[in-house]
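Figure 6 in text form: structure in, sequence out.
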């Protein structure tokens, strides 16, 4: 029997993810967002405009792509999907969420007969649109196997990382390594330029050597070297939120994480300087203010 799917959160990442789910899954997909324009934009892809209450009453599986665990908990509350008894059996949180709160929410939902699976995504908005995301999943093997056909609609690399919360652990570490690497690149570019070597020249040579990386290609050459830090990408504010999740996780397991703490400070400085909505490599501006 073909399940009815719900998708809540049609922002920068969620819009592309929901579109791919609607066009590839072969299932009826109910879509909800606080901005009705985001819902309307997906109507041509076959997604059916809805709301949280209706999704709770009609959907068998609900996917979430929300800003933080706060919104996830709100949607999964008695004022949200649990407002009335419905057919929902699985909620898949594709947001980047706090590990411990994710596990506590899973225990709560279990009492309602609902399985929570964490499946945060990595890569860019373009990857979300193209269905080529990396999706790290926290679930049991059998649960993963049943969900994978739907997740394959949105991601080209869908990986089971362990039980509930494991997907969030891996996502937090992925973003921590990426953002810390971009911090190092921003410092290298500032030092190089002030020492008489252009950022473009440094980027070209780094790509030929042992410092070559996805971060260098994605942000170093395309953005840092060109002083281009657009809005409506992965902002300083979102990057700081993710680093705070990584710092909370490292504290909970008593692992020193000084490098990430310093990067978080630089992001906060960029936000305080008015760059909170800019693509997060804008930390270059506060590392090298005269640049």
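Output sequence:
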């Amino acid at each position: 029997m073909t399940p009815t799917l719900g998708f809540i959160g049609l922002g920068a990442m969620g819009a592309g993810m929901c579109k791919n789910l609607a066009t590839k899954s072969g299932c009826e997909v109910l879509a909800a967002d606080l901005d009705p324009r985001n819902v309307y934009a997906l109507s041509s892809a076959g997604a059916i405009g809805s709301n949280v209450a209706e999704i709770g009453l009609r959907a068998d599986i609900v996917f979430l792509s929300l800003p933080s665990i706060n919104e996830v908990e709100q949607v999964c509350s008695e004022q949200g999907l649990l407002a009335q008894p419905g057919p929902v059996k699985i909620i898949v949180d594709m947001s980047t969420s706090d590990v411990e709160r994710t596990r506590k929410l899973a225990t709560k939902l279990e009492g309602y007969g609902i399985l929570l699976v964490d499946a945060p995504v990595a890569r860019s908005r373009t990857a979300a649109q193209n269905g080529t995301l990396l999706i790290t999943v926290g679930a049991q093997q059998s649960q993963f196997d049943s969900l994978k056909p739907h997740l394959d609609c949105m991601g080209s690399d869908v990986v089971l990382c362990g039980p509930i919360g494991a997907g969030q652990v891996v996502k937090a570490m992925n973003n921590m390594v990426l953002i810390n690497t971009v911090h190092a690149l921003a410092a290298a570019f500032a030092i190089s330029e002030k020492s008489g070597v252009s950022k473009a020249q440094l980027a070209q040579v780094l790509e030929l050597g042992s410092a070559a990386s996805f971060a260098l290609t994605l942000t170093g050459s395309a953005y840092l070297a060109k002083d281009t830090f657009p809005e409506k990408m992965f902002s300083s504010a979102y990057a700081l939120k993710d680093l705070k999740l990584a710092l909370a996780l490292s504290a909970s397991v008593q692992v020193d994480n000084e490098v990430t703490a310093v990067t978080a400070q630089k992001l906060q400085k960029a936000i305080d300087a008015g760059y909170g909505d800019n693509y997060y490599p804008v930390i270059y501006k506060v590392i090298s203010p005269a640049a």
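Caption detail: The first strand starts at residue 5 and ends at 8.
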